[in-house]
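Board notes (copied after class):
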Amino acid sequence: MAQTPELATDILAAAPTLPLTADVWQKIVETIGLSTKQGQIVELMLRDLSDREIALVLSISESTIETHKERISYRTGTRGRMQLAMHILAVSHQIRQ
């Protein structure tokens, strides 16, 4: 599948948005200690994009996505998207208090 800016835009338009402000999201990423790219990947994972879609949107390979996901898992102590989502929710509650 060829990468096009239009395809990336269509993917993002179809994905649900996160109920977090950009400021709160940035604080979550910083609190967890993720890189900017890892934060982008987590955001897109939480928006229910597949690894292939994330790769298309960020213009990186699926194997790079896998590498980042392994590092995200290690950093957060989570396995899988559901545990990651729960971890993000817990961190967001801590930040908002």
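Comment from the instructor: The chain has a mean pLDDT of 86. The helical segments are 5-14, 22-32, 36-46, 51-58, 62-76, 80-96.
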